[in-house]
Amino acid sequence: MPVRRGKLLCNLLQHAHRRAAAVPRDDAHALVALGNMYYCLKFDEKNKRTDSFFNKACEYYARALRLHPRNVYAANGVGIVAAEKGHVDDARAIFARVREAAHDTNTPDFTVNLAHLAMLTGSYAQAAALYDEALQHTPDPARALHTLLFLANARFRQHSYALAVAALQRALRLAPDAHFLWSNLALALERQAIDELNADKSAKHAFQQQHRGEPAADVAPDAELTQEQVDRLEHTAAHYRSRAKAMGPAVAMLEEALRVFDWLAGVRAEPVRFGMLSYAHSQSSALKHKTHTERVLAEARKELESVCGHERECAAAWQAAYERFEQQRADQQQREAEARAQAEREKLERLREFEAMDREALQAAKQRQEEEEQQQQQQNQKKASKRSRKSKKDAGDAEAISASTAAHDEPLVTV
Predict the structure, then answer these.
(1) Contact in structure between 85 and 120 (CB atoms under 8 Å)
(2) Which of 59, 124, 233, 316 is the most exposed place for a label (fewest CB within 10 A)?
(3) What is the rounded distance in angstroms from the CA atom of residue 7 to the CA atom of residue 4?
């Protein structure tokens, strides 16, 4: 795993041979520097001796580590060699120990190498976190640019296209004239827009599946509305509103990507070199992406126009249905209020009737009571009169008896 990749300056090989002859056998730092030079020569596309350069680099790293076993730079070189030979686990262990041993040096190369290994194993989220950490200790703009490109690549492979766009925008602030950065930015914007459009298609499919088999939400003008119908119209309008809101930024990103691809398709730029690395954009690739973006953008605009039209129709239908439903509910409430008032009036009328009947019954009862009292008085008077007559008769009889008794008691008179 290289700290830096790309073409090397043409005279680097000559300097490497001269310095190799002059390096003392006990100078570990010089041996590491030679190992780095030979390792960089491995990526010189014009040179066919790449395998011999790699072997030379391995030799110098090993010599430096034997001289100074705690030299983190030599250990880093050995980790690079292990990674290049496919011993990923060994390389990860070496880089982790080197990073831990050199935590006070704030050297980002060791962290970047760990991130490269994470990329090799498909751990893109871990790689992105490590690249972010390395950026915090990378003040040099050229090296920061490389790390930002690595970070954008990790986010891109992670399908976090918005974060990839953010990383490329940071890189463009360091090199605003770099065409290859604009090309990568346009590609990330295109992928982010396509990703959001695919999410919109999934939302559309889910909505259709959810409402499959349901009756149409349209309601006849003279039909009675239900709460369920109004809610369905509102849900449909909200669905199209949400889709339009999501598709708008996606279309804007496609338009931005198309502008960049159109510009790059007409620009023939020389490769841009940052430190040891060289980058260039391809006009043919830009033209290819331009054609693809035009097709996707045309489809997205057509779909967005359809969605906006449905959103307006559903919003108007929901508004009309809502007003009708509210009017119906107000009318129903008014009818219910009138019915309650009528029931209250009828109840009051019945109460009045009952009160009148109670008064009549009470009056009748009172009259009967008076009649009964009069009859009782008359009976009492009759009884009293009868008792009086009987008393008088009894008194008369008693007087007669007394008189008769007196007559019998007198002595007889003889004549």
Answers:
(1) no
(2) 316
(3) 10
